[in-house]
Amino acid sequence: MNLALTLPAPLSMNNEATEAAATALQYSSTLLSILAYSFCSGTMLILNKVLTQHISPGFIGVLQFAATSCIVLTLSALSLIKLDPLKNPTTNPLTIGYFKYSLLFLIGVYSNMKALEASNVDTVIVFRSSTPLLVCALDTVLMGREFPSPRSLLAMALMVVGALSYVATDAAFALNGLSAYFWVTIYFFAISVEMIFGKMLTRDLKCELGTSVLLTNIITLPFMATLSRGTGEEWSLAPLQENPTSMVALFLSCVVGTGIGFR
Known about the structure:
- The protein is mostly helical.
- Helices cover 81% and strands 0% of the residues.
- The protein contains 12 helices and no strands.
- The protein has helices at residues 2-6, 8-52, 57-77, 93-118, 121-129, 131-143, 150-168, 171-176, 182-204, 209-230, 238-241, 244-262.
- The protein is globular.
- The termini are far apart.
- The mean pLDDT is 83.
């Protein structure tokens, strides 16, 4: 009788240990993903800033989208990642959803490139760091998420205060006024809306991560090409050939851009 009473205790302890280990693994995986995304995103800003000094922003986007699409298809051919079969792409809800998302993605990427071309990396980082406040508001309104706690709101408000402080002391703003922030402001709103739409898309339409990356890039590619050529941008790698470092930056940007998609 005593033995029977003592049996559940070790079993309960084992269950608690298993749950604790699973929770710790989930937190570690999430933290690793955040760190990987932060590294890729920060590196991408620097690489794109280097590239926009030599070739047009839209052309950079075209090269990166094409490279990412090729990399994903190659990985799939080597059976390293899985892709969903996409039958009837013109009527498939998945391709229709990513078609809509790609339009927002296009605006976000292009405005980011133009912002880097017109201003410095610090300005883009400051504006992007302020997006959580708008994103959490859209999360609450559009996705029914719980409103952030006062502590979280305070943290995000401090980000905005920091951004406003940066603007107040920025020489470009003092010289050109609000026009200095035209492209980075478009980027701020575009990426905020893109994040929410992306959350809604992945919530409602399930697919392999590789499929998501492929559809985003391969659909956005012709849009970016049309926008770039339509605005009169020049497509030439000649300026990069004169600077080997820039060619390395282009190659790395294609690799890192693919990494961001998978993070």
